[in-house]
Amino acid sequence: MFQTQLKEVSVYRAGCVTRRTASVPLKAGKQTVRLSGLSGTSDGASLRLHVPEGVTGSNVQVEYRTADAREEEKKALTEAIARLKRDLGLKQKYISFWEKNAIFTERQTDIAEMTAYLEKLPERMESLYRETDALTAEIAEKEKALKKLQETLNLPYVTAELTAEADGTYPVMLTVLEHAANWNPVYEIHAEDGTDSLLLRLRATLRQDTGEDWEGVRVTLYTGNPTVSGTIPVLNPVYLRIYERPLAKGRIAMPTAMKLSANMARDEAVAGGAMEESVMMADADFGTFSEVNAGSGTAVQGDTMTEYALSGTWDVKKGQEIVLDIEEKTLPCRYHTVAVPKYASSAFLAAEVKSVLLTDLQNTEASVYLKGTYAGRVYLCPDLAEETYDLSLGTDETVKIRRTKKKEYTSTVLLKGQKKTEYEYETVITSAKAKTADITVLDQVPLSGDKTIVVEKGDLSGGKEDEKTGIIRWSFRLEPKASKTIRLSWQTAWPKDKEIRER
C-alpha cells in the first residue's frame, strides 16, 4: 500500500477537488498497486488517476479493507508496542534492583565492595533512565501511529493495474471530488463621500471537514460549484391565457375550453421536469501526466468561473474555519444619494460603479465602512446587463423623503364603457447636508399588460422614463439645507365590467 500525500486543493463554493501524489516503484511490465489517502467524503465516481509518460494504467477501482485485512495491518504495530512495553517493564525492574541493592543496611558487606557499587550506580542508573525514556517515547510514537492507522482502516483506497516500460520509481496522482469543504466570500466596502473612488476588499472564509488535516497544501478558490448541472436547459412553449374570476362552486360545470387549458398546464409541468445533474470537476495542467478514467464525470478547463490562486502553502485542520485575504481593488465611482419613496421613506448613500468592473462580484453581503467607521451590511447583487450599478452604502440620514398621495379618483366614462382612475403623488426631498448633494429619485408608473387597459402619463416633473419598465428617474443637485418637490401623475382606463390588478 502506497500512501499518497495531499499537495493541492481546488475549493469551490460547495465541495473541493483534492490532488494527491505518491512515488511508486514499478518493475517493467504489468503489476497491481494500491494507493491510500482517500477520505471518507471522497466521491468515487469523480476519481481520476494520472500517470506519467512511460506508464499506462487500467482497471482503476475504489475498494475497502475486509475485517481480516484491517486486523492484519494493525498486527505489526500492536505486536511492536507489546514488545516495547515488555522491554520497558524489564528496564524498570533493573532500576528497582539497583536502587534496592544500594541499601547496605540490610546485608553484610565490606567497605571495598560497597564503594565499588556506589561508584558504578550513577552511571548505570543514568543509562537505564535514558533507555526507559527512549522506550517510552517510542511506545508513544507507535501508539500514535496505531491510532492514525485505525482512523484510516475504514477509509477507501484505490487499486490500479500499471504497466511500466522500464524499471523505475514513477510519480502518480489522484484527483477526486470531496463534498465536505467550502468557502464563502466576505466583502468589505471602504468608502469616503466626496472622493471619486472606493476600496473593495474580498476575503474568504474556508472550512473543511474531510476528516484529515491539510498540511502545506496549495489552495485555489473557485467561484463556481462542481456539482451544479452542466446540462443546457430546454425552452418549452409559454402560453398566455385570459384570466376570468372563478364562478361560485356548484353553479356551472367547467367549460370544455377551461378543461383543455388545465390539461395543457399539467402537461407542460410534466414536460418541464427536473434537469439531470452532471458532475463537473476542474482539471489543472498535469504536464506529461495522462488520465486513467475510473468513473463517470465531465472535465472542464477552469475558464467557466473565476479562480483565485492563493500564494504559498496553507495548513487547514479538519473542522477548522480560516479567513483568507484574497484581493482588494480601487474602483472609480460617483457618490450620490438614492431615494425610492414608493417603498422606503429613507434615502440611501450609494456609489455608482460601471458594471463591467464588477463581473467577478459574488452575490452576497458586504460590510460597509464609511471613513473607517463600520456602517452596517448591505447585499450585493449587480445586474451586469445594466451599464452601471449602485453599490448601496447604507441609509443616508441627512436626506429626508416624504411621499404623499394627493389624488386617487375613479369615475365611469359611459360613452366608452370604461372606468378611469386618476393618480397624483407628491414627493418632497430635503437635504440637511452641509454641502451640495447629488440626488437620484426613482418612482414608477404602471405598464399596460392588456390592450384593453390604457395608461396615460401626466406630470413627470422633468423625470426620464424607461418605457420598458415604467421607472421614472430624477437626477439633480440639491443645495445645503434645501428642498425639492417632485410631482408624478397618471391615469388608467379599462373596461368597466372587468377588474385590474398590479402584478
What does this structure look like?
The protein is an alpha+beta fold and 503 residues long. Among the domains are: 69-152; 390-495, Immunoglobulin-like. The chain has helices spanning 67-101, 111-152, 256-271; strands spanning 2-3, 5-11, 16-26, 29-36, 42-51, 55-63, 157-164, 168-178, 181-191, 197-208, 214-222, 280-282, 290-293, 298-300, 307-309, 314-316, 320-332, 334-339, 346-354, 364-370, 373-380, 388-413, 418-431, 437-444, 454-457, 464-466, 471-478, 483-495. The strands form 5 sheets. The protein has a 9-stranded mixed beta sheet, with no helix packed on it. Helix 1 packs antiparallel against helix 2 (111-152). It is elongated and about 135 Å long.
Task: Name a few traits of the molecule.
503 residues; alpha+beta; Immunoglobulin-like; eight-stranded mixed β-sheet; elongated
